[in-house]
């Protein structure tokens, strides 16, 4: 009987030492990471940005419309492209530049990670602020009055995201767009919209994504606009993220896809395309 | 009868704990390394919680996987998200003992053998490694270097990156224990 008691005491000591080590460690409050695998869902920018000293190279490609018919190989004959570079100035502040073939537009932006979601939920969301500037350089022979100022647009977005589970993340981006010049008097120079994005991760590296931009009516009257809706499938492999996308927007930057989407999903105005993002670590510690 | 046995138990337990001079730290250091011709992976965790009882030889560690620091942020993110799945398995632990002479009151270097169970990614395996305890200025510093295979702990290495991660990773332990108040 005493022998049994003795061994029980020793056992208690064994696991109690581990319990002591664990209680000494305490709970670690850490920031939630990997809310999204990339800086874009389809066209929408996410709260993610490159780490300090990292450079992301992004190629965004949209073919023509799927309803273009077999003669145009269902849109594959046509293409618009955006090439972009994102750079992490600090872990929170990133800057980017890009150029789209659509209207030969240059764009630049600053993205700041203001708030980070914590694992203990003391901060329930991640919040980033995005400011972009775009300038389309396409020449119009009949519109010689278009100077650099008139061709420029600005957008401000608040990117609010939450990683709900290891598989599901959501993001809401209220947006203010400002166009220095709009085509018609009834067009607004200042537009307000909101975009909702989601990703559902079904393996460790593959996800289905979607985004929807709501542009309240009455703001753009010079063209028949639709709300931008996109679906994507993405796979992350080490330093690359590949995204295959279907969208009714031909434009890939905020000042194009939010207010100037003409395509209708119902009519088959769907652009198939892809985004490829490659991460480079430049800083040698 | 049962009451007196119970009372005796309690007395024994309290007596046992009263005699144990534990040494501990919350800032132990454990790092792991993988070197291949394609990629070098090095990460260090400087917040290892460790407790040791020099008298009985028992020791235990606990560390948070999220606190492994990498030089490349993206590598750290992939380590947590894709490999060790630290949201599912937030900490790794070791529970075991060392055999060998250790005199906590006499300065010197004491080679020992450490044996016990290591739990990583929800998998527990027996491990054994030689180690060294150095007693100096009233503290005990334990060091050890051993190899482990991530696949043994169900850490999935995808085929496409199989040449980027060494089959056997090297683990370096460097923990300075102070007397526990």
Textual characterization of the structure:
The complex is a heterodimer of chains A (285) and B (181). In chain A, strands 1-2-3-4-5-6-7-8-9-10-11-12 form a 12-stranded antiparallel β-barrel. The model of chain A has no long low-confidence stretch (mean pLDDT 92). Chain A has 2 helices and 12 strands, in the order H-E-E-E-E-E-E-E-E-E-E-E-H-E. Chain A has a single domain, classed as monomeric porin ompg (Porin, Beta Barrel). With 285 residues, chain A is mainly β. Chain B is of the alpha+beta class and 181 residues long. Helix content of chain B is 16%, strand content 52%. In chain B, strand 2 and strand 3 form a beta hairpin. In chain B, 28% of the residues are buried. Chains A and B meet through helix 1 of A and helix 1, strand 2, strand 3, helix 2 and strand 5 of B.
Question: Summarize this, please?
Answer:
Chain A has 285 residues and is mostly beta strands.
Write the layout of secondary structure elements.
The complex is a heterodimer of chains A (285) and B (181).
Chain A: H1 2-25, E1 54-65, E2 79-88, E3 93-100, E4 105-115, E5 126-136, E6 152-163, E7 168-179, E8 190-201, E9 206-214, E10 229-237, E11 240-247, H2 254-257, E12 271-281
Antiparallel strand pairs in A: 1-2, 1-12, 2-3, 3-4, 4-5, 5-6, 6-7, 7-8, 8-9, 9-10, 10-11, 11-12
Chain B: H1 2-19, E1 23-35, E2 40-53, E3 58-64, E4 68-70, H2 73-83, E5 91-99, E6 108-120, E7 123-136, E8 139-148, E9 169-179
Antiparallel strand pairs in B: 1-2, 1-9, 2-3, 2-4, 3-5, 5-6, 6-7, 7-8, 8-9
